Amino acid sequence: MRETITLKPDEMPDAYYNVLADLPNPLDPPLDPATMKPIAPEKLLAIFPETLLEQEMSHERYVPIPEAVLREYFVYRPSPLIRAVFLEEYLKTNCKIYYKHEGLSPTGSHKVNTALPQAYYNKLAGVKTLVTETGAGQWGSALSYAGKKLGIAVKVFMVRVSYEQKPFRKKLMHLFSGDVSASPSSLTECGKRYSTDNPGSLGIAISEAIESVTTTKHAKYALGSVLNHVLLHQTIIGLELKAQCKKADIVPDTIIGCHGGGSNFGGTIFPFFPDKLEGRNIKFIAVEPESCPSLTKGEYRYDSGDTAGYTPLMKMYTLGKDFMPPAIHAGGLRYHGASPIVSKLLHDGYIEAVAYNQNDVLTAGKTFALTEGVVPAPESSHAIACAISEAKKNNGKTIIFTLSGHGHFDLNAYIDH
Ligand SMILES: Cc1ncc(COP(=O)(O)O)c(C=O)c1O
């Protein structure tokens, strides 16, 4: 029998968990690139609404989820926790493997979890247009969907290599009225610095989005990862997971998430962080591509979040803002930096990071599709590759990973493989 642990709607958490309340060492503050001193929050009001800025800095342990957002969450949440029995049998492992399935959201990934509150708070603040970047298109489609639902226009700069590799992601954004341009584009000064056959990067697309906000009336910027408030919204994953583990008497030994900017990984593990602080032996593993190894090969230092240097400097693991990752299929993991909170936890030894090559990742994703019947996003296949390696240790452990999205628009990745 397939084991699926569900929560009833009234068992879904109604507040996000803020790990900043429990970090043993405070985060280093973001710096103003003009002065190299901690940035004044007012300066960021040009690109973010006040409520999201408050959430970015808040140390309150719990932040209530607005009613209007809960209503939208009920379209696809609580998401199921599923025991991967077929994968276990295939691997002949004595480990238990579970996955938290975030691929059932309206646009197919966890990104909707933060798109909805971001669209909601911007709408409340009177913003008419949200401008953003997207890698593989998961975040752009999530924000287009949330904008359509909550009444706000969305403009997306999509990294060119994914724009060309994943035409149906673009179509999905169009379906929800998102206005999509390939990045680098000729719409911004930053974009014009590159030739039109440049594959692009998330760093360049972020610069283009920020520049475009400053030239568009009543517009603000939205980011799909990295920032504290984004990871805060994603704790809905870990909070549900914790409730599901309690309900089914599951005691996880290892929790795994793929890592691009840190939002699905952070959102999954943060609610378990207090348990680790209390001495529970639990391992958290972030998984990234070997070809874009910010956490495993990057330096822990201040760096810009984008290529043009418009964003505040953040203390994080980084490959350098000009790093140009190769055109791998997991477009959502092609980011030079990482979440400052995830970086701090790694630096202080609370989490681990590993890197896998694309070949092993796609093999793992295919194995998962053939055994469990779910085609994973290539990003999520990184978590699967790690879960499989852990299960092969045959040490009777309980392994949980977040399946951050489905791969129905990424089939070329598996066909080419
Ligand atoms: C399906 C999926 N998983 C993971 C990621 C990586 O982002 P993050 O590290 O913020 O979860 C992305 C980014 O686009 C994605 O689309």
Percent of residues in β-strands: 15-25%
Mean pLDDT: 96
The helix fraction, in percent, is 25-40%
How far from one another are the termini?
A: 32 Å
Instruction: Please give the radius of gyration in angstroms.
Output: 20 Å
Unreliable stretches (pLDDT < 50, length at least 5) are none
Structural class: alpha/beta
The count of β-strands is 15
- Distinct bound molecules: pyridoxal-5'-phosphate
Q: What is the helix tally?
A: 18
Question: How many distinct folded domains?
Answer: 2
State the name of the first-level CATH class of the largest domain: Alpha Beta
**Strand arrangement, major sheet:** 1-4-5-15-10-11-14
Overall shape: globular
How is the main sheet built?
Answer: 7 strands, mixed
CATH topology of the largest domain: Rossmann fold
Return the CATH architecture of the largest domain.
Answer: 3-Layer(aba) Sandwich
